[in-house]
Write a structure and sequence with these properties.
Radius of gyration: 8 Å
Helix content: over 70%
């Protein structure tokens, strides 16, 4: 889940159970960058 935090952004749309986790991780990653 962590290594895909940035790549899962696209998969997050297809994966509902990961959408919540990915969206949160993605937002944190973008905020840091």
């Amino acid at each position: 889940v962590r290594p895909y935090a940035t790549g899962s952004v696209s998969l997050g749309s297809a994966e509902e159970p990961y959408d919540s986790d990915m969206t949160h991780s993605y937002r944190l990653t973008e905020g840091r960058l």
